[in-house]
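=== RUN LOG ===
request id: a7f3
mode: sequence -> structure
chains: 1
length: 188
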Amino acid sequence: MDSRNHPSLLSLIPNLINALVPIGGVIFLAIGFSGLLVVGFGSVFGKDFISGDGAGVVYTSERCADYFRFHPEAKDCYSAATAHHYDEVVDIRGGIGAVGSMVLIAYYGLRRRFKWASDTRVIPRGFSSTVAASLFGAAAFLLLGIFGMQAGFGNTTGVGVLLASGLVSVVAFLAYATQLSRDLLRAG
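=== RESULT ===
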Protein backbone atom coordinates (compact mmCIF):
# COMPACT_ATOMS: atom_id res chain seq x y z
CA MET A 1 0.00 0.00 0.00
CA ASP A 2 1.21 3.42 -0.92
CA SER A 3 1.08 5.89 2.01
CA ARG A 4 0.22 8.74 -0.39
CA ASN A 5 -3.21 7.17 -1.00
CA HIS A 6 -4.02 6.99 2.72
CA PRO A 7 -3.60 10.29 4.54
CA SER A 8 -2.40 10.23 8.11
CA LEU A 9 -4.57 11.42 10.96
CA LEU A 10 -2.28 14.42 11.41
CA SER A 11 -2.76 15.47 7.79
CA LEU A 12 -6.55 15.36 8.27
CA ILE A 13 -6.58 17.80 11.20
CA PRO A 14 -5.76 20.98 9.23
CA ASN A 15 -8.19 19.89 6.53
CA LEU A 16 -10.96 19.30 9.06
CA ILE A 17 -10.29 22.68 10.63
CA ASN A 18 -10.32 24.27 7.19
CA ALA A 19 -13.63 22.57 6.41
CA LEU A 20 -15.45 22.98 9.75
CA VAL A 21 -14.43 26.40 11.10
CA PRO A 22 -16.45 28.28 8.48
CA ILE A 23 -19.49 26.14 9.32
CA GLY A 24 -19.12 27.10 12.98
CA GLY A 25 -18.86 30.76 11.99
CA VAL A 26 -21.99 30.48 9.84
CA ILE A 27 -23.87 28.76 12.68
CA PHE A 28 -23.01 31.66 14.98
CA LEU A 29 -23.93 34.15 12.26
CA ALA A 30 -27.26 32.37 11.74
CA ILE A 31 -27.99 32.70 15.47
CA GLY A 32 -27.31 36.43 15.11
CA PHE A 33 -29.70 36.68 12.15
CA SER A 34 -32.35 34.85 14.16
CA GLY A 35 -31.96 37.65 16.70
CA LEU A 36 -33.03 40.11 14.00
CA LEU A 37 -36.13 38.01 13.33
CA VAL A 38 -36.77 37.87 17.08
CA VAL A 39 -36.81 41.67 17.18
CA GLY A 40 -39.27 41.73 14.28
CA PHE A 41 -41.51 39.08 15.81
CA GLY A 42 -41.36 40.85 19.17
CA SER A 43 -42.46 44.09 17.51
CA VAL A 44 -45.33 42.47 15.62
CA PHE A 45 -46.56 39.80 18.05
CA GLY A 46 -45.28 41.18 21.36
CA LYS A 47 -42.46 40.20 23.69
CA ASP A 48 -44.61 37.48 25.22
CA PHE A 49 -44.38 35.57 21.89
CA ILE A 50 -40.59 35.55 22.26
CA SER A 51 -39.88 35.26 25.94
CA GLY A 52 -43.03 34.92 27.97
CA ASP A 53 -43.09 32.44 30.83
CA GLY A 54 -45.30 29.39 30.70
CA ALA A 55 -48.40 29.03 32.81
CA GLY A 56 -47.77 28.57 36.50
CA VAL A 57 -44.42 30.35 36.75
CA VAL A 58 -44.26 32.38 39.95
CA TYR A 59 -41.43 34.67 41.01
CA THR A 60 -40.39 35.58 44.53
CA SER A 61 -40.75 39.20 45.58
CA GLU A 62 -36.94 39.54 45.51
CA ARG A 63 -36.78 38.27 41.94
CA CYS A 64 -39.61 40.60 40.92
CA ALA A 65 -37.67 43.49 42.44
CA ASP A 66 -34.69 42.51 40.25
CA TYR A 67 -36.86 42.52 37.12
CA PHE A 68 -38.37 45.89 38.04
CA ARG A 69 -34.85 47.29 38.40
CA PHE A 70 -34.26 46.45 34.75
CA HIS A 71 -37.74 47.47 33.59
CA PRO A 72 -39.33 49.99 35.97
CA GLU A 73 -41.92 50.85 33.28
CA ALA A 74 -43.47 47.37 33.52
CA LYS A 75 -46.99 47.17 34.93
CA ASP A 76 -46.44 43.90 36.82
CA CYS A 77 -43.81 41.28 37.62
CA TYR A 78 -44.76 39.08 34.65
CA SER A 79 -44.30 41.99 32.22
CA ALA A 80 -40.98 42.97 33.79
CA ALA A 81 -39.73 39.36 33.60
CA THR A 82 -40.88 39.01 29.99
CA ALA A 83 -39.16 42.26 28.99
CA HIS A 84 -35.95 41.25 30.78
CA HIS A 85 -35.90 37.80 29.16
CA TYR A 86 -36.62 39.38 25.76
CA ASP A 87 -33.64 41.71 26.21
CA GLU A 88 -31.44 38.73 27.08
CA VAL A 89 -32.58 36.76 24.03
CA VAL A 90 -31.92 39.67 21.67
CA ASP A 91 -28.60 40.70 23.24
CA ILE A 92 -27.19 37.17 23.46
CA ARG A 93 -28.14 36.36 19.87
CA GLY A 94 -26.63 39.63 18.68
CA GLY A 95 -23.39 38.89 20.53
CA ILE A 96 -23.20 35.37 19.13
CA GLY A 97 -23.77 36.74 15.63
CA ALA A 98 -20.94 39.23 16.14
CA VAL A 99 -18.63 36.39 17.23
CA GLY A 100 -19.63 34.47 14.10
CA SER A 101 -18.72 37.47 11.95
CA MET A 102 -15.33 37.73 13.64
CA VAL A 103 -14.67 34.00 13.19
CA LEU A 104 -15.45 34.19 9.48
CA ILE A 105 -13.40 37.35 8.95
CA ALA A 106 -10.43 35.83 10.79
CA TYR A 107 -10.79 32.51 8.97
CA TYR A 108 -10.93 33.99 5.48
CA GLY A 109 -8.18 36.49 6.33
CA LEU A 110 -5.88 33.72 7.55
CA ARG A 111 -6.81 31.49 4.66
CA ARG A 112 -5.88 34.20 2.20
CA ARG A 113 -2.61 34.89 4.00
CA PHE A 114 -1.64 31.21 4.30
CA LYS A 115 -2.85 30.05 0.90
CA TRP A 116 -0.65 26.95 1.02
CA ALA A 117 -2.63 25.60 3.99
CA SER A 118 -5.98 25.90 2.20
CA ASP A 119 -4.71 24.44 -1.10
CA THR A 120 -3.98 21.01 0.36
CA ARG A 121 -7.14 18.97 -0.14
CA VAL A 122 -7.44 15.60 1.56
CA ILE A 123 -11.15 15.80 2.34
CA PRO A 124 -13.38 15.33 -0.73
CA ARG A 125 -15.30 18.16 -2.35
CA GLY A 126 -18.75 18.40 -0.86
CA PHE A 127 -17.76 17.42 2.68
CA SER A 128 -18.42 20.87 4.16
CA SER A 129 -21.69 21.38 2.33
CA THR A 130 -22.85 17.88 3.36
CA VAL A 131 -22.10 18.54 7.03
CA ALA A 132 -23.65 22.02 7.00
CA ALA A 133 -26.77 20.99 5.06
CA SER A 134 -27.26 18.08 7.46
CA LEU A 135 -26.86 20.26 10.56
CA PHE A 136 -29.09 23.07 9.34
CA GLY A 137 -31.67 20.66 7.93
CA ALA A 138 -31.92 18.80 11.23
CA ALA A 139 -32.09 22.08 13.16
CA ALA A 140 -34.85 23.43 10.90
CA PHE A 141 -36.86 20.21 11.20
CA LEU A 142 -36.58 20.08 15.00
CA LEU A 143 -37.09 23.78 15.70
CA LEU A 144 -40.06 24.19 13.36
CA GLY A 145 -41.49 20.87 14.52
CA ILE A 146 -41.39 21.90 18.17
CA PHE A 147 -42.81 25.31 17.25
CA GLY A 148 -45.63 23.65 15.30
CA MET A 149 -46.47 21.30 18.15
CA GLN A 150 -46.56 24.06 20.74
CA ALA A 151 -48.50 26.46 18.53
CA GLY A 152 -50.85 23.64 17.50
CA PHE A 153 -51.74 23.05 21.13
CA GLY A 154 -52.43 26.74 21.62
CA ASN A 155 -49.20 27.64 23.41
CA THR A 156 -47.85 30.79 21.76
CA THR A 157 -45.94 32.00 24.80
CA GLY A 158 -42.20 31.98 24.19
CA VAL A 159 -42.34 30.12 20.87
CA GLY A 160 -41.13 32.97 18.66
CA VAL A 161 -37.50 32.01 19.29
CA LEU A 162 -38.18 28.55 17.86
CA LEU A 163 -39.85 30.05 14.79
CA ALA A 164 -37.07 32.58 14.18
CA SER A 165 -34.32 29.99 14.61
CA GLY A 166 -36.16 27.47 12.45
CA LEU A 167 -36.68 29.93 9.59
CA VAL A 168 -33.03 30.96 9.59
CA SER A 169 -32.06 27.28 9.63
CA VAL A 170 -34.25 26.66 6.57
CA VAL A 171 -32.50 29.45 4.66
CA ALA A 172 -29.06 28.14 5.63
CA PHE A 173 -30.09 24.57 4.75
CA LEU A 174 -31.26 25.66 1.31
CA ALA A 175 -28.01 27.56 0.69
CA TYR A 176 -25.83 24.61 1.71
CA ALA A 177 -28.04 22.06 -0.10
CA THR A 178 -27.65 24.13 -3.28
CA GLN A 179 -23.89 24.18 -2.76
CA LEU A 180 -23.92 20.42 -2.15
CA SER A 181 -25.73 19.78 -5.42
CA ARG A 182 -23.17 21.93 -7.24
CA ASP A 183 -20.32 20.06 -5.54
CA LEU A 184 -21.81 16.70 -6.51
CA LEU A 185 -22.35 17.78 -10.11
CA ARG A 186 -18.73 18.94 -10.33
CA ALA A 187 -17.46 15.71 -8.81
CA GLY A 188 -19.50 13.53 -11.19
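=== NOTES ===
The two ends are 26 Å apart (CA to CA).
Residues 17-187 form one domain.
=== END ===
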